[in-house]
Each structure stands twice: as structure tokens, then as C-alpha cells.
Specification:
The longest helix has 25 residues. This protein is an alpha/beta fold. It has an 8-stranded parallel barrel, surrounded by 6 helices. The protein has a single domain, classed as TIM Barrel (Alpha-Beta Barrel). Helix 3 links the parallel strand 3 and strand 4. Helices cover 47% and strands 15% of the residues. The relative contact order is 0.13.
Length: 242
């Protein structure tokens, strides 16, 4: 099973599909953000699903409970593998999102809550009026998601170890802001390498430019999958020996 989600951070649909044509569903999952969805709409997502890719619809729904519930059901109808809402919407909104997906049974997408964007740094976060720092805020927002019975949260890998300790192994952690050691941070602040993120407890690693700007995305993905699989096996063997 691949743990890598490739973020299709393109502003041009043709460029996005050119990238997708170099990838395989066996090697990665795909993430569609607000920009690409606004340009391509539901049909773009359906095309990716028809190509057998697991699609993470990253639209961060945040509205009154009824509107978010309707949006989640609409996303589920597209056949996506994962979708997200914003934890700042509160417990009622999160529960409405959960209830909207219950009728889909085993075909329901994974429902994730966004905590704090990885573009935030500590000073900017507190300047927004939050009394708690980023780490404590993420923990509180994740608790809301857990209480609402969501599948997990989207968070920085920097907070993954803390969340894994608090919520256990069944609570899914998706971590954007993953960079290779040689990459620039770009607009991200709280970033880790794939190996560091996996060791911290991340389940899925969101990687964009590191993959999409590579000269050979397919070869890079195969190498990363092999390295992460070996790392996971080594960690499991170490745990059994303790």
C-alpha cells in the first residue's frame, strides 16, 4: 500500500493530466485542491476516479452544518477516497459531516478534519487571536474530530507524534508539507522529510512539487515507496524485539 498522496498543484488542467499520465495508482494517490477543482469541476475528479486513482478531495469544507453535510454527500457521490472539512467549524458541523456519510457504508470516503495549515508559523497563529499555541490548538481541534468520530485529521508531521500518542493507531494522520532534503520549503513553514514524517506517526504523506517537478516522477515514487516500506518493516521488527 502506498503512503504517498501526490498533490496536483496545477493551475492548468492539461498540465495536471500530463502529470497524471506519468503516474500509476499502484504508486500514489492524488490530491485535488480548491484551485484545480474550481477549474475542472466534478468531471475532472470523476476522470481521475475512472483511472482507478484514490482521490483526496481537498476542499476543506467550512460552513453551517447542513451546508457542509450536503457538500460531503456530493463529494461521496463522486467516488472520492478521502475528503476533508475544517475542524474550526466546531463539533456540530463535524458531526453533521459524519452523519452525511454514514448512509454510504463501506463506500464512504475517509473523512478528515483540517487542524492548522502547515503554512502557519507560531507568531502568525497567535496573531489571529488564538490563546493557545499551534501545538496545543492542533491537539484541541483533533480532539473535536475524534469526538465527532471522524477518521482522522490533516496536520503537520511536526504534531504527528503528539497526536499518535493521544489518539492511538486507528486515528488516521495525513501530513502535508513533506519535502525531500534537497527541496525548498516554498510557502510551507512546518515541514519534514518523508522518513521523518513516517517515523513520527504519519499514515499518509502529501507531496506536491517534490514529485510533480521531478524529471521522472514515476521513478521517484517507486524509490520513495520502497524506502518507506523498508522503514516501516524495520520499525515493526524493532517493536517486536522490545
Amino acid at each position: 500500500m502506498t503512503r504517498i498522496i501526490v498533490a496536483l498543484d496545477f493551475t492548468d488542467l492539461n498540465q495536471a493530466f500530463e502529470c497524471v499520465e506519468t503516474l500509476s495508482p499502484a504508486h500514489c494517490k492524488l490530491k485535488v485542491n480548491n484551485s484545480l477543482f474550481t477549474r475542472g469541476g466534478p468531471e475532472f475528479v470523476r476522470r481521475l476516479v475512472d483511472l482507478n486513482f484514490d482521490v483526496f478531495l481537498d476542499l476543506k469544507f467550512y460552513d453551517i452544518p447542513n451546508t457542509v453535510a450536503q457538500a460531503c454527500a456530493a463529494a461521496a457521490d463522486l467516488g472520492v477516497w478521502m475528503l476533508n472539512v475544517h475542524a474550526l467549524g466546531g463539533l456540530m458541523m463535524l458531526r453533521a459531516a459524519r452523519e452525511a456519510l454514514n448512509p454510504y457504508g463501506k463506500k464512504a470516503p475517509c473523512l478528515m478534519a483540517v487542524t492548522a495549515l502547515t503554512s502557519y508559523h507560531e507568531a502568525e497563529w497567535t496573531s489571529l487571536g488564538f490563546k493557545k499555541g499551534i501545538e496545543d490548538s492542533v491537539l484541541s481541534l483533533a480532539q473535536l474530530a475524534y469526538d465527532a468520530e471522524l477518521d482522522g485529521v490533516v496536520c503537520s508531521a511536526a504534531e504527528a507524534a503528539l497526536l499518535r500518542q493521544r489518539f492511538g493507531t486507528s486515528f488516521c494522520l495525513v501530513t502535508p508539507g513533506i519535502r525531500l532534503p534537497e527541496d525548498a520549503k516554498d510557502d510551507q513553514q512546518r515541514v519534514l522529510t518523508p522518513e521523518m514524517a513516517l517515523a513520527s506517526g504519519s499514515d499518509y504523506l502529501v507531496m506536491g512539487r517534490s514529485i510533480t517537478r521531478s524529471s521522472d516522477p514515476s521513478a521517484l515514487l517507486m524509490r520513495l515507496n520502497a524506502e518507506l516500506s523498508k522503514q516501516r518493516t524495520d520499525e515493526q521488527n524493532t517493536d517486536r524485539s522490545l
